[in-house]
């Protein structure tokens, strides 16, 4: 029996068309985890996949535009320093996310990638994941507080 999965099943993703034994197929259909792979359901699946692909392309294009805009800007942080310009504290992903949000970019701190917190003056390049296929390299400038 051929079925179309509605949910993830072992090594198969939703939308996969798989061949299973009749009893198991009936069980999955009754449970709502699959539908029978009829011509109508396959056509509906293909139409849905095409719409999803188009939406994904539009989203990636929007994220590419946002990436270009973000990479043109410099995000500054004023920090207190001691002797020999030693920074008190550090610039963390949380602080970077707050500044990005203040400037109108809605970025979660989990999407900002730092190997370690920034603890020195100067310009640092930070990776920001806008989409799984789009990463921006923003400039974070750490300057002395006056």
Describe this structure in words.
Strands 4-7-6-5 form a four-stranded mixed sheet. It folds into two domains: 2-62, 3-Layer(aba) Sandwich (Ribosomal Protein L9, domain 1), CATH 3.40.5.10; 74-144, Ribosomal Protein L9, domain 2 (Roll), CATH 3.10.430.100. By secondary structure, it is an alpha+beta fold. It is built from three helices and seven strands, in the order ββαβαβαβββ. The protein has helices at 22-31, 39-72, 93-102, and strands at 2-5, 17-19, 34-36, 74-79, 112-113, 122-131, 134-144. 37% of the residues lie in helices and 27% in strands. The model has no long low-confidence stretch (mean pLDDT 92).
Element pattern in H and E: EEHEHEHEEE
**Overall pLDDT metric:** 92
Per DSSP E runs of 2 or more residues, the count of β-strands stands at 7
- Spatial order of the strands in the main sheet? 4-7-6-5
Number of helix segments?
A: 3
What is the architecture of the largest domain at the second tier of CATH?
Answer: Roll
CATH homologous superfamily descriptor of the largest domain: Ribosomal protein L9, C-terminal domain
Rg over alpha carbons: 24 Å
Main structural class: alpha+beta
* Percentage of residues in helical conformation: 25-40%
Q: What's the CATH class of the largest domain, please?
A: Alpha Beta
> How can the largest sheet be summarized?
4 strands, mixed
Q: Approximately what portion of the residues adopt beta-strand conformation? A: 25-35%
In CATH terms, what is the fold-level topology of the largest domain?
Answer: Ribosomal Protein L9, domain 2
Q: What is the overall shape?
A: elongated
Q: Quote the distance from N terminus to C terminus.
A: 73 Å
User: How many domains, as an integer?
Assistant: 2
Low-confidence stretches: none
